[in-house]
Design goal:
Layout: E1 2-5, E2 19-20, E3 26-28, H1 36-44, E4 49-52, H2 68-86, H3 93-109, H4 126-144, H5 149-160, H6 171-174, H7 182-189, H8 191-199, H9 207-215, H10 236-251, H11 262-272, H12 279-286, E5 297-300, E6 305-310, E7 320-325, E8 331-339, E9 348-351, H13 354-367
Antiparallel strand pairs: 1-4, 2-3, 5-6, 5-9, 6-7, 7-8
Helix pairs in contact: 2-3, 2-4, 3-4, 3-5, 4-5, 4-10, 4-12, 5-9, 8-9, 9-10, 10-11, 11-12
The protein binds fe (ii) ion.
Amino acid sequence: MRRVAIDKLESDMIVARPVFNSDGRVLLHTGTVLHENYISRLMELGIVSVYVRDELFEDVDIKDVISEETRRETIQIIKENFTGLANKHKMNVRLVQNTVANIVDELLSNHDVLIQLSDIRAFDDYTFAHSVNVCVLSIMTGITMGYNDTKLRELGIGALMHDVGKTRIDNSLLNKPGDLTAEEYQEIKRHAEYGFNILRQYDEISLLSAHIAFQHHERWDGQGYPRKLTGSDIHEYARIVAVADVFDALMADRPYRASYSLSQTLHIMKRMAGIYLDPNSVNALIANIAVYPVGSVVELSSGNIGIVVDINRQHPTRPVVKVVYDNNFHRLSQPHEVDLSKMDTVIVVRVISDQELAQLRQQIRHNCPAKEV
Ligand SMILES: [Fe+2]
């Protein structure tokens, strides 16, 4: 499968991953054949890209780090709590604690799985889906740092609720298109303090989790807000959440731009390490990212070209590759899988760029239009 920007979608393309609306309801199921009406409806809903089947390679299954059920349930819990708080209701702390405990358990038992893709989200859904991703990424980083269960849960709750202070800010200001005045920007920045004040009211929530909301916009170099804390004066939990927050924001489609690619995101993160972000936390997060995510098209030292179908954490640079083409992109008569972690002689030489793949697709369409999927 591959991810295609909405304006590049064409009728007859086949959906390869379900597209959800903000309530977690499926808008388009896997296997749906697109046509113009669907595409314009997706545009109206603010969906910027869709995973579609790829005619060059048969579909590969991309595993998520947590189950789809847990992800959707958590998005729902966040949405209900944020909406409730905005209407001056109390937070359902028990539900939040339970869902974070579930995520910690799933991540500890799925520890072989690496982060491979970001979700496709509608924009009205951004805050909720983003909160869940920040929680998952932070916990994975905590696991890499050797945190125990208690610390993972404290970190997870603060990460999930890091932007809870936004419930105290007027929606019209949060969603204001165009530039903000200096006062409006000051008000938005107050969400860090508001979040701290909300979370510390609850005895069941650790004060350290509340400090994540307070400190997640502090910067390693002391240029952040609200208190301009520097380096290790920023609590380690908040440093981790800041890294997860930036990573997920870069990997997400936004109203004004499509997501950055994984390699662009990693490049930006490395440049931010030591300036905006804590370098240790950046490294610990990056340790959880697949070097060659499932679905990447790679050239091997044997000259053959294939698609990554599986990866393992012990050998991140040695994935399982389904070899489909020779070095001239002629389809092999018998495509086969090779597990590079079990071979000393063959390595991945490079990732085939999207541009090269686009050229190749055109070439295939030109040569054999009848076979087009
Ligand atoms: Fe924030």
